[in-house]
Every structure is written in structure tokens, then in C-alpha cells.
Specification:
homotetramer; alpha/beta; Alpha-Beta Plaits; TIM Barrel; four-stranded antiparallel sheet; elongated
Amino acid sequence: MIVVMSQGATKAQINDVEKKLVQLGFKTHAIYGQVKTVIGAIGDKRLLNTESITSMPGVERIVPIMKPYKLVGRELKPTPTVVDVGGVKIGGPELAVIAGPCAVESEEALMETAVKVKESGARILRGGAFKPRTSPYSFQGLQKDGLEILASVREATGLKIVSEVLDTRDVETVDRYVDMFQIGARNMQNYRLLQEVGMTNKPVLLKRGLAATIEEWLMAAEYIAATGNSQIVLCERGIRTYETATRNTIDISAIAVIKELSHLPIVVDPSHAAGNWKYVGAIAKGAVAAGADGLIVEVHLDPPSALSDGPQSLRPEKFHQLMKEVGLVAQAVGRSL
Amino acid sequence: MIVVMSQGATKAQINDVEKKLVQLGFKTHAIYGQVKTVIGAIGDKRLLNTESITSMPGVERIVPIMKPYKLVGRELKPTPTVVDVGGVKIGGPELAVIAGPCAVESEEALMETAVKVKESGARILRGGAFKPRTSPYSFQGLQKDGLEILASVREATGLKIVSEVLDTRDVETVDRYVDMFQIGARNMQNYRLLQEVGMTNKPVLLKRGLAATIEEWLMAAEYIAATGNSQIVLCERGIRTYETATRNTIDISAIAVIKELSHLPIVVDPSHAAGNWKYVGAIAKGAVAAGADGLIVEVHLDPPSALSDGPQSLRPEKFHQLMKEVGLVAQAVGRSL
Amino acid sequence: MIVVMSQGATKAQINDVEKKLVQLGFKTHAIYGQVKTVIGAIGDKRLLNTESITSMPGVERIVPIMKPYKLVGRELKPTPTVVDVGGVKIGGPELAVIAGPCAVESEEALMETAVKVKESGARILRGGAFKPRTSPYSFQGLQKDGLEILASVREATGLKIVSEVLDTRDVETVDRYVDMFQIGARNMQNYRLLQEVGMTNKPVLLKRGLAATIEEWLMAAEYIAATGNSQIVLCERGIRTYETATRNTIDISAIAVIKELSHLPIVVDPSHAAGNWKYVGAIAKGAVAAGADGLIVEVHLDPPSALSDGPQSLRPEKFHQLMKEVGLVAQAVGRSL
Amino acid sequence: MIVVMSQGATKAQINDVEKKLVQLGFKTHAIYGQVKTVIGAIGDKRLLNTESITSMPGVERIVPIMKPYKLVGRELKPTPTVVDVGGVKIGGPELAVIAGPCAVESEEALMETAVKVKESGARILRGGAFKPRTSPYSFQGLQKDGLEILASVREATGLKIVSEVLDTRDVETVDRYVDMFQIGARNMQNYRLLQEVGMTNKPVLLKRGLAATIEEWLMAAEYIAATGNSQIVLCERGIRTYETATRNTIDISAIAVIKELSHLPIVVDPSHAAGNWKYVGAIAKGAVAAGADGLIVEVHLDPPSALSDGPQSLRPEKFHQLMKEVGLVAQAVGRSL
């Protein structure tokens, strides 16, 4: 950590900061510039509260040298993590494709969708039972019935299932049904929920918050890891920007950044990023070429009748075609589907 | 609602959309332009899922005419709501000032802070017992002990108290202690939590999410209102932008926009917006001049020793001075402190 | 165009708006909803000033139905434009790769770089002679000497050249040297400059402004086209967001959106988007897989000694390797390099 | 400057960086942490290109300690600058109010507007002769005729005038008419234009770019100052964010930040920030309470007939009322109107 003292900081202020740093267990090392003084503080104290230093008189700012996350960072674990979702690997040479409707609507529809996406190459089925909707008047999901349907479709098809959990009180129930928890973008900083899924031993698909920095996202993953569960898959799903032509702006370079900073696998959700099925294919192929470990794609038998996210859902035929195209791109970058 | 058909939409597609709209209970009215057709759909169906229309073949987009919120909007209730927090009014001619430390740290410190902020003009005491922290290694709050301390300080000082609730499982407990719930920015779209506080009869201070649009914020308020609790105070606390000179960018014009769209009162949190105590005064005065109904300000006896948010906390003397300045600005815009 | 009247608009206000619309040459068509009235205005008057309507009493807002651009849009010209840069086609089945240093520094260095990037597959050489630098104290380019060097390297290598023009007064000079003008991100809305290059018959590489919407970008292209030059290549180079891990956030979905809205070709600049050579490869491959018509990549013989943009420049060997990888991705999506 | 070496940087790489820094004239000082090494580089070399260091092998990043601007910063000139616009002071105890139409439309209209805004307290008249419009089909201004009109209205009313210059070729002409140049938001990084107005001895109103950081804005001012003209007034006019309820988001805290970092005066443009006359008053009062040195407000006799920016223009009566309210707020913060 480097402490930058402000112009005009007094010798006494500099001494006080050094003294405080020593109390906190750092070795200090001051560099006196022509105009400003900076103090190097040696010691990996990333778990300490450094705000106390920032608030001291004469301090301009703190420059952290170490990343604030430990367990999910590459600094201490350089080899990539491969997450195992009931036998399906995420983070290995083979891409993991997760597909299915936004929300579970009925057993018949989910079964038909599941069979089709499996034929096209998906290995994990998505489907929301608990839905976080912007409007209280929108369909909120089939809840426990939805989980039952998911489980019976898994039984029939062999697909693994992932479904979102919204409330700490539901973690135990959802845990009985799914192969992987999903933490949605809106809940990325719902820390109690992160801790609760961290106490299970199920893999967690952690979506990036709508306006979360990559560092905040990794800190959210750190919450899960710190509670004991390191089976985490990051999911880039677009961030909020000023551009309105797409629902969100997919941050494709986040893939390369995550690969550099973390050992966790990362998948991309082109459907929520685009908000429009017409752009899903381009984003999906771009993501795979850029190094994503997998995709999560919304597929619906009849988008106009979907109870949620119809406009961004692909029909099974379009998904099938997309998987063929994605397979070619995967090969071009040395992966398989 | 207006449905804009895409260029090249066929007559059959236009008919299908009209038919669907009629099924949903709308009266329709098509306008045939030179290049595109638009269909007006008459009927206040804001509670319907209109995504189904967007997904129909030939549809370019939907233009809603009515606001998606009902209970919190001005369209149906033009008179301003005044929220009553144990006798302290928010939304009336008198400004409501909420002040106190970010986190409750000890009874002695909170008591001293409370006495001082009360002398300076605050009517409600803030203090976090459950803290949402970006890092799992940071202080997470005194939890139930913090609530006990808040209650005993209320007893001694007569200040009303507001404290954040993070988890649906804690709502009942927190309800026993506080005069107003706080829903933090990270939980603005934690819909189960919104519903849970919506089922109490306590006022709710609803902070704007870090990247929430004003419409999404009002929809979050609508969740609380739809569950039965209309005692909601909105709190603007800065939004995430590309600018890094301040922690967030305070959206001061949101005050005027909210006053136009909603009947709910709005207060401003200059401390979280700025992230730096030096800018708190300018923002606080700007907010009051722009029409805010109150302020929520972080005050700490000794910011460098604060366990949370020290850099943006004012010392009691600075807060006292600020209150004097704010009082003058309040008078200039016809309010009192 | 749809005019949405505000709740409570009077009959007289509605009449006035209709009268005004008729004066402007529209046919009108009012739809009276339960709460609000909307007026459809038929006629393609996209060249008219519609702000005058927005300012009329009782008007809530205007909803345009037609796109505000004509010449660069797909509505009137559905077939893709292929731009010819001295024989190199941009927008056809073959990808166009533009490479070279940020700034022209010396003839020797540019010659060596040019030879190498040509061997790796680049067809057009980039190199700034006039540099827009954030600091007035940074290297501002070799100016006319830089253009001379570019021309002599073209002579020797057969590569076509593109270089940025910053000032209307330089357009004539730059025109004598380059095969394609570059309009930089900072000048995307420098309308006089757009008009000046619009009056030449040289192709123009139009970079997206740092915070430009896709619509504003197309309107900037419309300025060039409206002045008489339709040889325009759009260049996505990352937009400004809150994320600081990369210099900008590449908007990969803009490729698909542009392909839908416009007939112009689009290339991607992964170097400026990333601001860090380590991420250039991932973005370049992602862009090609997502449908970009080409790439513009910064290559420098010795990045640490570069006078500008060293951190994001690739060494020729790394560029060579990247071109091989990009070639495979291009093939996977049915393009060639 | 601090150079942070990456984890795993070799001793040789550290030595190379130190050697390079010494060559550039710095004294160096390495601090060897447990995991990473940082090198302090002493010497105020803010005018040097430090990118060359960033590109060296083993370097993770550079942390600048000094601000990149000198002339416009407070570090070297702590006392506030008061700019003199033909006798009207900006930056002193009295607020400077600039008002007038977006564009000059006719002499009669401008004269009437000028007389009215003067009566209400404005001291400087605004009015665009050269207009930067998003669409090439919109009104582009009366150009030189507009300047003539401005000059004759100045003659008649005694108001000083400010008008925008868009093109380096027009600087000389505009200089003959105006009392202050305006550099618009779109041209904030049009460096040749900044240099051209920097070579005159007229004050310059420098608007913040739509997505410019405060640091980039000050660097743009530095361009003007470095060319010889230090009569610069900064103008905050809203930044681009994801929020669409207002045209831009006014960054009110920028006032306090600028006051800390720079000695230049700052005024606020509530009209462009809001994009809607209804919000202009709240922003104007908020800005003054937050410490702005003045306002620039769009006023039009009949907004619906305005050729530009009608929706955000105030009628003279509304402007008159606003000035009274602003005067009270000014007094409350120790300023006068």
C-alpha cells in the first residue's frame, strides 16, 4: 500500500501516519518528493480496514498495491479452476452451454425445450422458478412448483439444472433441486445471500451486477469463497451504459481481464446483454472467440407467448443453427462444444 | 400503448398484432404511414405483460404511454405524501435531517454523536447495525447488539432511529427496534426484501440503486406500496458514472424529476454521493436549494477511527456549521430546518 | 411521428398541436385514450425541426417513428456498401486489416513496421501525423513530415495509408497524401471537419465518439454523406463506461446493431478499446466472430520507446501470431483474411 | 510517480526500469514488498511521456503523484482567478448570469430578449451564430449575420456577448465581435481550436465535454493556458449517464471538485443539463447553493418557435422569476447577483 500525502502535509502529519501504519503491522518507507511525500507500507494486510488511513489529516489518498481479493485471485492460485456441475465441466477445453427459457412455465413446454436444446448441444438447462421482475405486477415465477418441474425434466433428459435463488430463506429448498445456484445480477451484492449459497457445496453461477466493476464482482465471488464454497462460475451479462440500442452493453473484454485476474471460469449470457434475439448470435460467437468458457442462452418454444424475456429468446431452430456456428468458432480458438 | 411495426411488416402481421391486442382487452387504432404502420392500443393495461407483443413478427418496438407504476405515481395521486417517522414529518415544509455514523460502533460513541447531532438540528439518528460491505473481510456491523444500542440512545435522546435491513430473515427483528427501515442501494432490487418491509407498517427509506434509473427506483417503491405500505421516503445517494473524482455522481436533477412523477418525499445523502467529507457541504446545500425534503449525513466523532466510511464522515463541529449554512439555504427556498 | 400529449392537456392544446403539424405538412390522426391523447403525424419529415412541437403547451414528448438519418440508413438503401480504399475493399467477404504505429515517428521505423505488418496480412497502414493528445505537453505528431514519410512508405510497400485529420485547415494537405481520412473519436461531432472531408472524394474512417450513441454516430456519418461523400467506414473503438479495468469498453454488439441499421461497413479498433496490449487479441477475435468487416490494430517495433500509445501496441511478432488466429476465426464465420 | 512492478517481475526488469527513470531525470527509490516491488520516482516530470515506462516488461502500472496540469491547477497558483469579460467579473463575490437564446434568429427577437434578460439581472448575452447540430438537416445558425446582430444588440443594451466558435478558420472573425468565446461540449477536445482561441486575448467559456472527466476538462483548459491565454471560465453542463429522464446528468459536485483542484471560475448551464425547462430552476438554484460562480441560461421569447433548443428554454417571465429565487439563494451562501 502506498499512502500519498497531500501537498502541504506537515512533518507531524507524516509521522502520525507512519506511526499508525506501524501499529497496524506494516513496515513503512517514506519517499520525500519535491512537492509531496509518499509512504510505502509493506505487508500484505489486505484484510485490514485502510479507510482509517485515508481519513487521517494530511492524507490525500491510498494506492493499494495488492488486489483486495485473495481466494478468487490468480495471485495466490495461478491454475484455472474447473467447476463440476453434476459431471458437466465448466472451465475446461470443452465449452459449457446452458440453455432454456427465462422462466419455467409448464412441464410440457420445459420438457420439449429441454429435449431440443440437448439435441443442439446444451448440457445444462436453465429455467427460473423464482423470478426477480422490475414490476410487482409481472409474473413472479412458479416458485416451488417450478423447481419440481425442473427436477422432473432433469430426470427425463439427463440435463443438469441451474436456477436462480432470490431469498436467503429459499436457499435450502432450492438446494434440494438444482445442480447449480444462480445469483442474478440484481443480487450480486446481496451479501447474506452470497454467504448462504457459500455454505452449501453446490456450484454457483454468479452474474455480474448491472453496474458492477470487475473488482466488485470478484469481491462478491470472494464472499462465496470465504464462506467455504469455491465452485464459482462468473457470468458476464452486459453492463449498464448510456447506449440504448441494446438493453445492456456486453463487456467482452471482461473475459480477458477475468482470465488475467482470477482462476475462476467465465461464461457469457448474450440474451440479457442484447435484450433482442437478433443480436444474440453475434454476441455469442464474439464471446467464444474472445475466450469465454461457455454460454447461457434463453430459448423459448414461442417467444411471443413467453411470460418473461420473450423478445430476447431464440426459438429452438435458431438456437440449433447458432450452436452449429458457435461450434465452428470454438474450434477456431482451440475449444470444442 | 403504441406498437410500432417495422418497415416491411406485412398486412397479416399487422392484423395478428391487432387481434392479440384486442384479446388482451385493448381497443386498437392503426395509423398507416408512408413507410411504417403504428397501432395505438387504448386501455390502461399497465399491469399486463407487453413483452408478448414485442416478440411478435413484424413488431419493431412498443412505446408505453402510461407510466408503469400506479401507486407511487402522481398520475393517480397528485398531492404530496408526508411520511411520519414517529412524529417527525418528511415531505412537509420543514426539512428532515437524519444524521449519525455509518455503523453503530459502541453505545458511548453513539450517545455522544446523537446528543451532538440533535443539538445541531437533526431529528432522526442513523446508524448501521447490519452493514453491507464490499469486502467479506470488512467489519459487518454489531448486528443485534447494534439495534439494542440504537434503541437505548433513542430512549435517552428522543431522536427517532433509522437502520438498514439486509436480509428478509431480519425484518421482524429490526422492526422491533427502528422507527424507519432503510433499504440500501445494493438491495434496491431485492424484491423479496421490499415485499417483506412492505408488509410492516413502518416507514421505509428507499435508497436509489447505484445504477438504477428513476423509473426502476419508482418501480422498487411500487413493490413496497403494492404490498401494502405507502410510507416510503426516496433517497438519492449518487449514481455510478465514469467520473472518479467523487465516489458517485449525485443526480441533483432527480429531485425535480421525482417531484414531477411521484408524490413521495425525497431526501439526499451527500456523504455516500461524494465519498469525501470535503464535498459534503456543497452537495447538501445544493440539494436543499434544488428542493430536497431532507438530508441524511454521516457524522462521526473521529473519522480516522471509524470502522466504516470514515473518509466521508463529518466531525460534529463541521456538521454543526453545515446545519447553520443549510438552514440559510432552506429559508431562501421557503423551507425551514 | 407520434406526439404524446400530457395528462390534463386541454382540447385547445390538442387542436393547436394538430394545426401546427398540418402546417408542417403532416397528416394527423388523434387517438383519445382514457387518460392521455396521442397524435399520429403521417409524413416523412425527418428533416424538419420537431423540437418546436415538443415545446408546445400540453405536449409531453415526441416519439419519432422514422430514423433521423436517411443516406446512411438501411431503410432506403438495403444493400451493404463496399468502400474501396485504393483497391482494398472494406465491407466485402475479405476482412480488411489496418495496422501500424499510433504515430509516425521516423521513416526507418515506419518502413520496417510496414514491411512486417504487410507480411502478416495487413493491407492498409495506419500512422498518425497530426496527433490529438490529452496533454498539450505530449508529442503532437510530425505533422507534414509525417505525411511525407507515410507517402514514401506507401511507395515502397504498396500498402494503402490512412491518417487522421484534426483541423479543417489541414484537409487539403492531408488529402494529397492519404488513401483514407481518419476522423478520430474526439472529433466525431466536429461538424465542420466532417463537412470538409465530405467535400473530398476520399474514403473516411469515422471513429465512434467516446460517449456517442449509435444514432449520433450515424448522424455524424450522415453529415459526411450529406456533403457528397458516401465512402464511409465506421470504426468501433470502445465507449466510456464506469469500468476502469480497460481504457474503454468495446461495444461488440454495436457491430450487429450497425449491420441492422446501416449499409456502411464497420471495423473494430481493439487497441484503443483495451488500452492494454494483453487484451487486444481477445477483442480482435471477438470482433471478427461478431461480424466486423475489419480491424485496425496498433503495432510498434518497440512499445516502450513509442511516443504515443505504447502500452496498447503489439510488437510485430505478436501481431503476426494474432493475424494467424484471426484468420482461423474469420474462416469459421465465412470470411477470409 | 510510483511504478508498480507486477508480481514475478525479475530483478533485471526492476533494474531496467530504474535505469530508464534515471535517464529521464528522476531520482529513484525502490521498496521491496513481500509480493511486489514499487519504485518511487522523484522529480516533477509531468511534462514527460510516462507511457514508455508502462510499456516496459515487468511493469504493472504507473501511479502519478502530481496532477498532469500545471497552469490551471491550484498546486502552483492557490488564489482564485477572476475573469474579466469586458468589465463583468466572473469568479468574484457577485454571480455572473449569462442568458439568451440558444441561437441568434433575428435582430428584433434578440433585442427584445436582451432587454428583458438584462432587466432580470443578466450581465452577459448568449446567442449562437455558428451552431453545432446533431443533424445536418437542422438549422446551422446565421453565421456571420448572427455575429453582426449580436454586436448591434450589445451596442444598444450594454450587455457583453458570448458566442460559440466551431472552426479554427472562424476564430479571427468571431474575435472581432464577441467579448468571450464559447467552446462547446463537442469541441472540448478539439485541440487545434483550443490553441487558436488560446492565441487571442479574449476570455474563453470552456464547456465540459459530454463524457469528459474533470481531469480531461482541466487538461483542455491547460491547452488554452499553455498557448498563452489564462482567461478561462469552466462551464459544467451535465454529463452523459444511463439516466434518460433528463438530457444529461448535471454533476453538481464538480463545482466543489474544481474549486479544490483549480483556480479557475466555474459556471453552470442548467438548460443543457436538463433538456427540459421544467427542471432548469431546481438545477440553477442547486448550482448556486453548491458554489457556482454563475449561470448560463437559455431564454427564448416563444420556445415553440425556437429554431434550436426550444424545449429547454425559459420564457422571459419565467427567467425573471428564477432570477429572483436565485438571488435569495445567492444571498444565503454569501454571494450577490
